[in-house]
Write a structure and sequence with these properties.
Family (chains A, B): Belongs to the class-V pyridoxal-phosphate-dependent aminotransferase family. SerC subfamily.
Organism (chains A, B): Psychromonas aquatilis
GO molecular function, one term (chains A, B): O-phospho-L-serine:2-oxoglutarate aminotransferase activity
Function (chains A, B): Catalyzes the reversible conversion of 3-phosphohydroxypyruvate to phosphoserine and of 3-hydroxy-2-oxo-4-phosphonooxybutanoate to phosphohydroxythreonine.
CATH superfamily of the largest domain in chain A: Type I PLP-dependent aspartate aminotransferase-like (Major domain)
Oligomer: homodimer
Number of helices of chain A: 9
Number of strands of chain A: 16
Distance between the termini of chain A: 29 Å
Order of helices and strands of chain A: EHHEHEHEEEEEEEEEHHHEEHEEH
Cofactor (chains A, B): pyridoxal 5'-phosphate
Shape of chain A: globular
Strand content of chain A: 15-25%
Mean pLDDT of chain A: 97
Largest interface: A-B, 65 and 65 residues
Chain lengths: ~350, ~350
């Protein structure tokens, strides 16, 4: 069979080594004779797995001791609700920075609970590229309970590498599609969260990293499973956690550590992104309309000069083993999501295919 | 290796045939060259899987057309919050029937949103056994938005086989540990829900079956992922669903259909439960303190005449391949959870072990 490379934005491909290990021990975890998904989350063996996964994630991201790490259900959209329900406390206001579809969706949910000051910072450069205003120009309302932004917009292919300074206002970030792709200074954030299905593991798990002083202020009507204090006090096992997803996330964390940690992973991600962007920029057949300063390393949208070739591009790339390259319906064209699990050989295969396709049809 | 039988209450054992199929296609689903957990939930292939799983569940439970079937995140405890947030509408009151720990936990969550009339119907028989008052003696408040009960209390080992008549008040049931174990007349219920990790699949998935007229009344502040109307309109894909759990649930549904459906499955469950209860009742060394009329077929707690032998029983049973027999800490003793996936050979192995243990230590 042709080697398959899967460019899906999420649920995304997982590391090949992780998948092979998971398959080999699928029905017999650690010699127990049963699957890890059949093990009680209250058993010493599973609790050891869970604690190790948290410890490895803390090591990877250098999470300071005054932050809780929570393994939750409900995905990123669950956190769109959980964040205001947990962080507003007795305040009524929160700031949301708009950089694309995901940050806009977060606002819709937050408006159920708070008065939102939303600021659209998307703009265009002199040559018509999409960009965003620098972080130091973002407005901060000093009375806000927090400021929320999305450092990587999966659909538009925008990534924000600077971290805004928000003074005493806690900074909250939806890191779903950038977490673990590059080093982070967690201490600059009050809270970060991420749906797992891009850079962590399968869908159905979300990670929350939250500073201690922001825990314990939840509104009374919050569903208990979303209450950070309840989950922190129960080691994320107030309700039965998604145990198999947690296990796979733990394998992914070990795989990242084995590569030398996030600084090494970032180097690979930079090389992968440069390979693809350089191929796009060197061609007049392909284009990407995001300014270089805010181009995502994880999600790379591009268009063909002739839209009528889109279906041909998709069918021929699929036949070549390059899967799920169709762009999001809101922006059209193509999109290659190249998270940590995508090896550079996959990006090279895509670049080679794109060159051959251009030669054939341009 | 000794054959292992896993009596965990949840996450519970899954059918051996399902696990073997899942392992064999773990990295190459339907010849795609990738795992089903790496497939986009928006792809035609995954949508076909999702629709087939729903269709199979509808067939198994004979779900009427005027009911929605939803695949959700957040487990049973998530639904403890979702039910009042969706069903109260402009009412303030709901009725909760108490039959054990799980129905009590549901009340704690519901009180965040409604005035709860809670009625404890647990009682004891003349000979000191735990029982519950008959359904026709349960009080129904005609002004309540719904009446909630739990037909199978996993911890106490109580099962309620009759379905109460609540007139115009919608009946809501937490079926987490009894769903798919016996036929149900869904039309008697307004809503049933179940965490998957007992009789459906791995943890991290919950199933909701809700009558059409109860959808669309959610409170404005409900987290959108819990809003039945939003999820129904999005075919349970408003947010990225737990795709791998959904896939495994689908395999379990196919496995149940291949056995001839739920009526056939019930016969096996009756035989399994009788085998174990008969062994307990025939012995003066083991005992179960639940009245026969309300004994659970799924979760069978029992105690040893001499508590000081508990640790020995647990270590020797584990060595014999009989796993996770420790009772819940709230009731102590032992518990054998024998959901659909447990073959009668597993129950026979437990009964044989219990007889040998009694002979050795009594």
């Amino acid at each position: 069979m042709t080697k398959k490379y899967n460019f899906c934005a999420g649920p995304a491909m997982l590391p090949e080594a992780v998948m092979q290990q998971a398959q080999s021990e699928f029905c017999n975890w650690q010699g127990s004779g049963i699957s890890v998904m059949e093990v009680s989350h209250r058993s010493p063996e599973y609790i050891e797995l869970a604690k190790q996964a948290e410890a490895d994630l803390r090591e990877l991201l250098a999470v300071p001791d005054n932050y809780k790490v929570l393994f939750c259900q409900g995905g990123g959209r669950g956190q769109f609700a959980a964040v205001p329900l947990n962080l507003l406390g007795d305040k009524l206001d929160a700031d949301y920075i708009l950089t694309g579809q995901w940050s806009k969706s977060a606002v819709v949910e937050a408006k159920k609970h708070a008065r939102i000051q939303e600021t659209d910072i998307m703009t265009t450069t002199a040559d018509g590229k999409i960009t965003i205003k620098p972080c130091d120009e973002w407005p901060v309302n000093s009375g806000a309970a927090y400021l929320h932004y999305c450092p990587n917009e999966t659909i538009e292919g925008i990534e924000i590498f600077d971290v805004p300074s928000t003074g005493i206002v806690p900074l909250v970030a939806d890191m779903s599609s950038t977490i673990l792709s590059r080093p982070l200074d967690i201490s600059k954030f009050g809270l970060i969260y991420a749906g797992a299905q891009k850079n962590i593991g399968p869908s159905g798990l979300a990670i929350v990293i939250v500073r201690d002083d922001l825990v314990g202020k939840a509104r009374k009507a919050i569903p208990s499973i979303f209450d950070y204090e309840i989950q922190a006090n129960a080691d994320s096992m107030y309700n039965t956690p998604p145990t198999y997803s947690w296990y796979l996330a733990g394998l992914v964390f070990k795989w990242l550590l084995a590569q030398g940690g996030i600084a090494e992973v970032e180097k690979k991600n930079i090389a992968k992104a440069e390979l693809l962007y350089n191929a796009i920029d060197a061609s007049s057949f392909y284009s990407n309309n995001v300014d270089k300063s805010v181009r995502s390393r994880m999600n790379i949208p591009f268009t063909l000069a002739d839209d009528s070739l889109n279906d041909t591009f998709l069918s021929e790339s699929k036949a070549a083993g390059l899967l799920t390259l169709k762009g999001h319906k809101l922006v059209g064209g193509m999109r290659a999501s190249i998270y940590n699990a995508m090896p550079i050989e996959g990006v090279q295969a895509l670049v080679d295919f794109m060159a051959a396709f251009e030669k054939k049809y341009a």
